[in-house]
């Protein structure tokens, strides 16, 4: 993102906080002027002392009182900037997080296929924190520094034009070198952020699969991967700290040289009587040089924060700029008959634009209230077919319709509200059993939750849990068995009560006893609904109204269990193989 484009895009986020920002910058102005007032008051006090050979108590008290008043104004402004300004920054961060989270909720499934959760978490947390620090501090601190530099320049011109011009003529050389070194940090910051995202993603991956890691005794392998990432992170940060070392060393050297230039040139001016410069004036110059270079140091330092914030905002923008393929239709159809047939008409689909088609010219009809089972080898496209119905992906060619209406003409929320999915890998949130069931319909009553659990065959085991329906499931349902998690997910669907149901390998990960219990629940769930069942265990689909054998070439066979066995084709061969290995 180019700098102009970055600023143009970033500024609108200040719009809700214009009044706070203006007041914050006004306080920054007063704070800046208050900081400039002290050297001026010191010069005034010493000037009178030199002219009169002494000072009255009245003058000392008056100037001292002004100093106290200035300091009180400075303190009040600083308090406002630290409190109200930071609160504005926090709200700013919350706005960005809300926008980013909303965008992530809209992303198609293909986006999550290609991005790691750990990296996305880094963007949502670390990057946005840096952005909010930049959004608050940079305008404020850069404004303060700019006001002070301009104020010092104008005031010193009033004292001695030539000495002021000498000092300010030397400064651009120091500043240019500092900015040159600082500019080289930006690419390093971007690399550092990317590596942090990768480390987070790998840690999240390892911890999520810690059971697999332990079962294969691969703890050492995971530690090696972590150490490799950690070493790369150290290398990246080491390079940035070397650059920072050069940067701040240059600042220290420049400050010292500026002091030397001021004192030496000022002494020459006094000795030669140039411009009527006095020792009081020279002391004022020295005091202002400190303020001057601290202001320049602030600009350079906050340019680092600018680079950090810009890098974070660029990563934020990367997500916001990803096109959302699954857009809401321009004209939403409200006349959808969800109890009608589900059809895939001449459907072609590929996960990658340039990749091989997973489905090609496929036709499939699921009659209203019937169950169609999809069987066949892995990778043939069975799950893809199921994913196209609720528009987790969009077809490249052809159409998917419900009751004759293309799904692309139906509101995404309404479509997915009427399609229920039971997957092999059940996801339960880290909340109570009741909260997980309520996910199917958040406004359901306790009686409806219990009724759904009973229908799913889950009520009996839930009642035996330590706190019943209020028992915590743990992260991803870790405290429950596979069969228990699956029955809770089925209860969730009973509560949702969708007219269309998709069962994707719903029992393949269960033991025989759990499978028997879950199959009983699924049979009740499918009763009267238009259902699509994907299964490898062929005994679970014998009762389907239609069985479709899906291969890489499309649907090879269709019919009932008895018809396909009698036909003696691919299904019959698969069934015999399954019975032999069962």
What separation lies between the terminal Cα atoms?
58 Å
Q: Decide which structural class fits the backbone.
A: alpha/beta
Q: Major β-sheet, in short?
A: 6 strands, mixed
| Strand order, sheet with most strands | 6-7-8-3-9-10
- Which consecutive residue ranges, at least 5 long each, have pLDDT under 50? none
Task: Give Rg in angstroms.
Answer: 35 Å
Count of beta strands:
10
Question: In one word, what is the shape?
Answer: elongated
Taking all residues together, what is the mean pLDDT? Answer: 82
Helix tally?
A: 19
Strand % is 5-15%
> What is the H-and-E element order?
HHHHHHHHHHEEEHEEHEHHHHEHEEEHH
Helical content stands at: 55-70%
Write the layout of secondary structure elements.
Elements: H1 3-10, H2 18-52, H3 57-106, H4 109-114, H5 117-159, H6 161-183, H7 185-208, H8 210-215, H9 219-272, H10 279-320, E1 342-349, E2 359-366, E3 371-375, H11 382-388, E4 397-402, E5 405-406, H12 412-417, E6 419-423, H13 433-438, H14 446-455, H15 459-464, H16 482-496, E7 500-504, H17 512-526, E8 530-534, E9 546-551, E10 554-559, H18 561-567, H19 570-581
Parallel strand pairs: 3-8, 3-9, 6-7, 7-8
Antiparallel strand pairs: 1-2, 1-4, 4-5, 9-10
Description of the molecule:
The protein is an alpha/beta fold and 582 residues long. It has 19 helices and ten strands. A six-stranded mixed sheet has the order 6-7-8-3-9-10, sandwiched between helices.
């Amino acid at each position: 993102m180019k700098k102009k484009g970055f600023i143009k895009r970033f500024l609108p986020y200040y719009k809700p906080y214009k009044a706070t920002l203006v007041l914050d910058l006004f306080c920054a102005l007063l704070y800046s002027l208050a900081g400039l007032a002290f050297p001026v008051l010191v010069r005034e006090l010493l000037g009178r002392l030199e002219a009169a050979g002494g000072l009255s108590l009245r003058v000392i008290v008056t100037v001292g009182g002004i100093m106290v008043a200035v300091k009180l104004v400075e303190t009040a402004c600083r308090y406002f900037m630290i409190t109200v300004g930071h609160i504005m920054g926090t709200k700013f961060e919350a706005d960005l997080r809300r926008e980013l989270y909303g965008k992530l909720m809209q992303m198609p499934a293909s986006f999550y296929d290609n991005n790691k959760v750990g990296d996305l978490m880094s963007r949502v947390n670390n990057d946005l924190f840096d952005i909010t620090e930049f959004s608050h501090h940079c305008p404020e601190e850069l404004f303060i520094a700019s006001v002070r530099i301009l104020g010092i320049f104008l005031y010193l011109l009033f004292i001695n034009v030539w000495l002021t011009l000498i000092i300010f003529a030397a400064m651009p050389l120091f500043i240019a070198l500092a900015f040159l070194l600082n500019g080289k940090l930006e690419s390093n910051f971007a690399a550092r952020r990317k590596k942090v995202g990768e480390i987070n993603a790998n840690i999240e991956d390892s911890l999520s699969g810690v059971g697999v890691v332990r079962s294969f005794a691969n703890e050492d392998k995971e530690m090696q991967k972590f150490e490799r990432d950690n070493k790369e992170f150290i290398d990246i940060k080491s390079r940035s700290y070397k650059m920072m070392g050069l940067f701040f060393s240059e600042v220290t050297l420049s400050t010292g040289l500026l002091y030397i230039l001021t004192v030496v040139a000022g002494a020459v001016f006094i000795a030669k009587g140039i411009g009527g410069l006095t020792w009081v004036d020279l002391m004022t110059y020295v005091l202002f040089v400190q303020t001057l270079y601290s202001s320049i140091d602030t600009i350079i330092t906050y340019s680092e924060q600018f680079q950090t914030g810009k890098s974070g905002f660029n990563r934020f923008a990367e997500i916001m700029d990803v096109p959302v393929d699954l857009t809401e239709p321009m004209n939403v159809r409200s006349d959808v008959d969800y109890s009608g047939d589900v059809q895939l008409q001449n459907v072609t689909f590929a996960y990658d634009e340039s990749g091989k088609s997973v489905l090609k010219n496929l036709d499939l009809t699921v009659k209203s209230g019937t169950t169609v089972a999809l069987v066949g080898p892995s990778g043939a496209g069975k799950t893809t077919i199921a994913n196209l119905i609720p528009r987790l992906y969009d077809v490249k060619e052809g159409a998917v319709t419900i009751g004759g209406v293309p799904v692309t003409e139906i509101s995404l929320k309404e479509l997915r509200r009427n399609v229920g999915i039971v997957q092999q890998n059940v996801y339960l949130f880290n909340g109570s059993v009741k909260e997980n069931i309520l996910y199917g319909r958040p406004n359901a009553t306790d009686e409806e939750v219990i009724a759904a659990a009973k229908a799913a065959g889950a009520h009996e085991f839930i009642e035996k849990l330590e706190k019943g329906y209020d028992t915590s499931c743990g992260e991803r349902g870790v405290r429950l068995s596979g069969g228990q998690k699956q029955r809770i997910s089925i209860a969730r669907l009973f509560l949702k009560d969708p007219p269309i149901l998709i069962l994707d390998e719903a029992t393949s990960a269960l033991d025989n006893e759990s499978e028997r219990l879950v199959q009983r629940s699924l049979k009740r769930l499918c009763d009267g609904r238009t259902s699509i069942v994907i299964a490898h265990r062929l005994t679970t689909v014998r009762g389907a109204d239609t069985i479709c054998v899906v291969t890489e070439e499309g649907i090879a066979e269709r019919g009932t269990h008895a018809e396909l066995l009698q036909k003696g084709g691919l299904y019959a061969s698969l069934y015999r193989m399954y019975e032999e290995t069962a």
